[in-house]
Design a protein that fits this description.
With 300 residues, the protein is α/β, with parallel strands linked by helices. The chain contains 10 helices and 8 strands. α5 packs across α6 and α8 runs parallel beside α9.
């Protein structure tokens, strides 16, 4: 069993500039089914959660204004999306998918959200295509229900997980680790529990060596009992926004390192896809598909 959340609301219209990156959410499940990495039984349809699951990590006034379409023009510009009812439903469905993935990972060891990784959302504002923070909400759900005592968030998207870092700045039960492009978005970084900024052009060898030196030590020091992994593929050399130089094989080896450690330590892990903006959609879909292939080889 490889539980995978799928949010069907991706079909709703988005601005023209955002439609190409969104294709991966449709093509990735098709590819996994076609090649046999996943079966239809592996997929579950993401559902919006109760408001209380959102309000553990988001300000009530912000959430009310987001739900009712009362964001200011400036707030909309910061998110990169014009508000719509469909957009709001999409965001809460993504968040619900990650919470359900956490529930599934407790049973199966690993679970995925085919979307997720909205790590630029703060308690009271959205940024960078992120309106609500799904991994933060799922981590808070685990803690609130006693399913975890210490959570480690491993954010390997090329952009710093600034919203996640800010949300958990005063929460010792959640350790935030972000390894990202040092000169990439956001210009103003927050302070994670551990930040590893990378130089432009960082390649497979440099990247993997740094991760291999860091993550095993973190697991020993933090002693988490649950892990969230943000597996952005905007670290690829082909990515328009990333400025790093990883190959698709290097990206796969990154997944092997993270998921292999979780498997060996018997740590349940939720994987969210994060960013990916290569010119060719096949580069995005194949890099994401590799993450599922690695997990299927380890956990099934």
């Amino acid at each position: 069993m490889l539980p995978i959340a799928f949010a069907p609301c991706y079909a709703h219209p988005l601005p023209a500039g955002h439609r190409f990156p969104m294709l991966k959410y449709e093509l990735l499940p098709e590819q996994l089914l076609h090649e046999g990495t996943a079966t239809t039984a592996d997929f579950f349809v993401a559902q919006p959660p109760p408001d209380e699951d959102i309000l553990r990590v988001h300000d009530a006034d912000y959430y009310h204004r987001l739900r009712t379409g009362q964001l200011t023009r400036q707030e909309e510009r910061a998110t990169g999306f014009p508000w719509s009812k469909e957009l709001f439903e999409r965001e809460i469905t993504i968040l619900g998918g990650t919470i359900e993935a956490a529930r599934q990972a407790l049973v199966h060891g690993v679970a995925f959200n085919i979307a997720g990784g909205t790590h630029h959302a703060f308690r009271a504002r959205g940024e960078g295509f992120c309106l609500l923070n799904d991994q933060a909400a799922a981590a808070a759900w685990l803690l609130a229900h006693g399913h975890a005592q210490k959570v480690l968030i491993v954010d390997l998207d090329v952009h710093q997980g600034n919203g996640t870092a800010a949300i958990f700045q005063q929460e010792p039960r959640v350790f935030t680790f972000s390894m990202h492009g040092g000169r990439n978005y956001p210009a103003r970084k927050e302070t994670s529990d551990l930040d590893l900024p990378l130089a432009d052009g960082t390649d497979d060898t440099q990247y993997l060596n740094m991760l291999a030196e860091t993550l095993p030590r973190l697991l020993d020091e933090v002693q988490p009992d649950f892990v969230f992994y943000l597996a952005g593929v905007d670290v690829l050399a082909t990515d328009k926004l990333g400025h790093l130089a990883l190959t698709r094989e290097g990206c796969r080896r990154r997944d092997e390192l993270v998921l292999g450690l979780c498997h060996r330590h018997r740590l349940p892990v939720v994987v969210c896809m994060g960013g990916g903006y290569s010119e060719r959609i096949i580069d995005i879909v194949e890099a994401h598909a590799n993450t599922y292939r690695v997990a299927a080889g380890l956990f099934t």
